[in-house]
Design goal:
Layout lengths: L14 H12 L6 H7 L5 H20 L5 E13 L15 H6 L8 H13 L4 E6 L8 H9 L5 H15 L3 E5 L5 H7 L5 E3 L8 H4 L13 H13 L4 E7 L5 H18 L2 E8 L16 H15 L4 E3 L9 H7 L3 E5 L16 H10 L3 E5 L4 H6 L9 H5 L29 E2 L3 H7 L10 H4 L3 H12 L4 H9 L34 H9 L6 H8 L3 H19 L3 E4 L1 E5 L23 E2 L2 H13 L4 E5 L10 H12 L4 E4 L2 H11 L3 H11 L3 E2 L9 H7 L6 H13 L3 E8 L5 H18 L2 E8 L6 H4 L9 H15 L6 E2 L2 H13 L5 E4 L6 H5 L9 H10 L4 E3 L9 H10 L13
Parallel strand pairs: 1-2, 1-8, 1-9, 2-3, 3-4, 4-5, 5-6, 6-7, 11-20, 11-21, 12-14, 14-15, 16-17, 17-18, 18-19
Antiparallel strand pairs: 10-13
Length: 901
């Protein structure tokens, strides 16, 4: 079995290949994977040449960062929170078993007292980082771990990590750096508010080392390369300063090692969230399956450090653990490192306990001998300290600021002290352009994009490549290959091209049209739409001309047979309580930084005032959503719902998208179910099914940097339905998506409705492109065509039948004429009066922010149909509400005062 851990023999690269690769490195030309694999084998004079090139890149990065000639380290304590793990890595001595822990007198987890004792002693010695290291999800493998967590009141290991991180912050002032293993997107939302930074080693992308028996990672589910790459991507999407790295010498080939480095580079290009990459050399340990494997050679380590620096560029930290280099400090400095990692004056390296940390004075002397000054940094790198939002959560920011030099971002010479971990002061205070709901129609927005356009959404060029691949553009592979030969500089995203004056897209991908015979599909749809195959449905989604007319006629006939002739609408008010958001949704023109001219936040009292005004003019509902404001407490949503119900007991609170639900749950530490239960108790009546966009992650990760994945959206809505909270369902289309994505989305919604029965309606949301960042960057097309709108509306009626019977069209996005067309294509609902609307208007919709009752009746009449008011859940409207709406025409007074001014 041990033989399978050894790499297959690799012949030495030809001398001319080495000379060519070394020259490209010297000349600053970007390397490809094959050249990187060659350079990983550099030795002797070739290694010296390679190291010199890498050192030049490192030195340029340090100069650009304002700290030339500086190598950093972090003074830390090591907290092995648990040594239990569900994985079985064949080189690991950190992980143990419950019986051995008991024999040694240890619990399954460190107790809070043990954690705080080490942290306090570390703080007394000037340490500023608390390195939390633990096995992956031990409760999944070991009943003893699960029993310990349950006995101490924790749902899972992550809950205990979060709780201990808070206590370390509050009682010692040390900054937690969390290494909890594989974390989901939801897990990052849960842990980010308690951590300055987080990390997880990629180790390798060589799948055979995980999948084949005898491999070092065989039997370890969390070491699957695809799983670990997903963690790195989710960290970037969540704006978490993240540490990763390679473990070299575990059986990988030079080519596999090079591919691992390029995988890290792709993640870094997309999200700019990797603060450092560790290059760690394998050291064989007794009592492990790999005890007979040779240690990785130090020349191999130096060559890998140098190639890492060349591939990842000057702006990222490259680290080699100083206790694993056998005092060859100068060799690693010459190869391009700029950081020695965490060094503890108190605790051992529990992963490599046989290798003690060097003394800081020794590191300083060795660094000085190589011409560098040793400076202390924090757990979070100085670049991220200076970036601030959204990389540092407001709950952690005061703790970081207490220890960071405001000019350099490095550590100050102070001793940590505990500070309260709490919600930011004034997190729900009113401020900014609170009259935007009115002035968006009269004055418009201040600019077509927010000030951090080039940074907050990730790397635009990397995104263009992904979008081309998604669209099936034949140039995609060529563009990707060319991109891999682009120098890695870690720079900000490229400027977006100007939008043509006529508003058309210049190079955005468009859906491919299928020249398919739709006759059989139309016949099947007319006979029994539930029997449509995917191929037939796709043919109909591409229908044009007479075929499209026939499709819309079939859908309209089905609408008539299912829900009758009435066009329904609801007298409602939209209340968007803040537009401050750093999630990085690339389709959203509503979100602003707190410092942007159009940013605003309403107070709870202002929200309640607006609800009361809506009630006075006949509303039965308020629809409330907002940006993911970093200062917003997780309980603020409860406060909003409660305030509205106290002010207007009879109004229905339709509020909080699945993204907001996940945000609230993460910030409060509650499960989604418990959070929704508390929200329902506070007055929540139903939730909007927004934040769905397209429920396919290959599309979602182009549309958004940090919004919840499709699986989490599904979890929220299904949990809400189980609790008796109904929801709408939505689809935003016409951007980078294809008809196959529309089909998958609609099929999924039908499946969910069969399972829960909780959807009240399906809402078509055509993409508004004008001010959308993903359009301004030249990636998305300029919204759907009218053909697309008709086809999507008709197919929604057919594919969701008989499970979701109400199909809603959007007058905000399509206007009165467009909405009337959709009413002739299978839709039966016009949505609401809205009274105020800022999200679509900020995106560039030109159809206003409200419609009166008479306006909505007129749209229905244009489609040849009567109109009828409804409640949120499509019930009958009380007589008193009907009279109030009729008297006011369901609209606010023209001279509505600007609240709170």
């Amino acid at each position: 079995m041990l033989g399978k851990m050894k790499p297959p023999p690799v012949p030495a690269p030809p001398a001319n290949a080495m000379r060519r690769a070394l020259k490209r490195a010297r000349d600053g030309v970007a390397l490809d994977v094959s050249e990187a694999a060659v350079l990983l084998q550099a030795r002797g004079a070739d290694l010296t040449d390679l190291s010199a090139s890498a050192a030049r890149v490192r030195d340029a990065g340090l100069a650009a960062a304002g700290r030339p000639g500086v190598i950093t380290y972090s003074r830390s304590v090591f907290l092995p929170l648990t040594r239990l793990c569900r994985d079985r890595c064949h080189y690991c001595t950190f992980v143990t078993v419950p019986g051995k822990l008991r024999r040694e007198g240890h619990g399954m987890f460190m107790s809070p007292d043990e954690v705080l004792d080490i942290a306090r002693r570390g703080a007394a010695l000037g340490c500023k980082e608390a390195l939390f290291t633990l096995g992956d999800r031990p409760e999944d493998r070991w009943p003893e771990a699960r029993e310990w967590l349950e006995a101490h009141g924790y749902d899972d290991t992550q809950a205990y990590v979060r709780a201990m991180a808070v206590r370390v912050l509050e009682e010692t002032g040390l900054l937690p750096h969390l290494n909890p293993g594989v974390v989901t997107w939801a897990g990052f939302q849960r842990l980010k508010p308690v951590a300055a930074s987080m990390g997880m080693m990629l180790e390798t992308t060589a799948e055979r080392l995980w999948s084949e028996p005898g491999g070092p990672h065989h039997g370890s589910p969390d070491k699957e390369p695809a799983v670990r790459l997903r963690v790195l991507e989710d960290a970037g999407r969540s704006s978490v300063p993240f540490t990763s790295g390679l473990l070299i010498g575990i059986g990988e080939t030079p080519a596999e090692r090079a591919e691992s480095l390029f995988a890290l580079r792709r993640v870094q290009r997309a999200y700019q969230g990797l603060q450092e990459v560790i290059v760690q050399n394998f050291r064989a340990k007794p009592d492990t399956a790999m005890r007979g494997m040779p240690d990785a050679e130090l020349d191999d380590l130096a060559a890998t450090v140098a190639v890492t620096r060349l591939i990842l560029g000057p702006a990222i930290g490259v680290q080699a653990p100083p206790n694993l280099v056998d005092a060859e400090y100068g060799k690693l400095i010459a190869a391009g490192i700029d950081d020695w990692g965490g060094v503890s004056p108190l605790t051992p390296d529990h992963v490599n306990p046989e290798r003690p940390w060097p003394q800081v004075d020794e590191l300083a002397a060795q660094s000085a001998a190589a011409g560098f000054e040793l400076r202390e940094r924090l757990a979070v790198y100085p670049e991220f300290v200076r970036r601030g939002e959204p990389w540092l959560d407001p709950r952690v920011l005061p703790h970081v600021s207490a220890l960071a030099d405001p000019e350099t971002g490095l550590a100050r010479d102070v001793r940590p002290r505990g500070l309260p971990w709490q919600e930011p002061d004034g997190g729900f205070a009113a401020g900014g352009r609170t009259d935007l709901h009115r002035t968006i129609d009269t004055e418009g927005r201040t600019g077509d994009r927010r000030g951090d356009f080039d940074a907050v959404y990730g790397d635009w060029e990397a995104l263009r490549e992904t979008a081309r691949e998604l669209s099936g553009d034949p140039a995609a592979s060529e563009a990707t290959a060319a991109s891999e030969a682009t120098a890695a500089t870690g720079s900000a995203a490229t400027d977006a091209p100007d939008r043509p004056a006529d508003g058309t897209a210049t190079d955005g991908p468009v859906p491919a049209r299928l020249d398919a015979d739709v006759r059989a599909a139309l016949a099947r749809a007319a006979d029994d739409p539930t029997r449509l195959t995917d191929a037939q449905a796709l043919a109909l989604l591409h229908a044009e001309g007479p075929a499209l007319d026939a499709l819309c006629g079939i859908a309209d006939d089905l609408r008539r047979a299912t829900v009758g002739e009435d066009v329904t609408y609801v007298v409602t008010r939209n209340i968007n309580f803040t537009n401050v958001c750093y999630t990085g949704c690339r389709f959203c023109a509503f979100a602003q930084r707190r410092t942007d001219a159009d940013a605003y936040t309403l107070s709870v009292e202002q929200v309640a005032d607006r609800a009361k005004q809506a009630w006075d003019v006949g509303a039965v509902e308020v629809c409330m959503q907002g940006g993911i404001h970093p200062d917003l407490p997780g309980t603020a949503y409860f406060d909003i719902a409660r305030a509205v119900k106290e002010r207007v007991p009879g109004i229905h609170v339709h509020a909080f998208s699945p993204m907001e639900v996940m945000n609230g749950a993460a910030r409060t530490g509650l499960s989604v179910r418990d959070w929704l239960t508390a929200a329902k108790e506070a007055g929540l009546g139903s939730i909007p099914g927004t934040a769905a966009e397209i429920l396919d992650d290959e599309v979602r990760w182009i549309l958004t940097k940090g919004k919840l994945p499709a699986a989490d959206w599904i979890e929220v809505v299904t949990t809400a339905h189980e609790l008796g909270l109904r929801s709408s369902s939505t689809m935003m289309y016409g951007h980078v998506d294809q008809p196959r994505h529309w089909l998958g989305h609609l099929r999924l919604l039908a499946e969910l409705q069969q399972r829960t029965g909780g959807f009240t309606e399906f809402v078509t949301l055509p993409f508004i492109h004008t001010n959308a960042p993903v359009y301004l960057a030249g990636i998305a097309r300029p919204g759907p065509t009218m053909r697309d709108n008709r086809a999507v509306t008709a197919m929604a009626r057919l594919l969701l039948h008989p499970h979701i019977t109400n199909i809603q069209t959007s007058w905000v996005k399509l206007g009165a004429d467009g909405a009337a067309q959709m009413l002739r294509s299978g839709a039966n609902d016009l949505g609401g009066t809205l009274m105020e609307e800022t999200i679509s208007r900020m995106a560039g919709s030109s159809y206003g922010s409200y419609r009166s009752v008479k306006d909505l009746v007129a749209i229905a009449a244009a489609a040849g149909r009567p109109a009828r008011p409804r409640t949120t859940t499509y019930g009958e409207v009380p007589e008193e509400r009907l009279r109030a709406a009729e008297a006011a025409d369901g609209r606010l007074p023209e001279l509505l005062p600007v609240l709170g001014q």
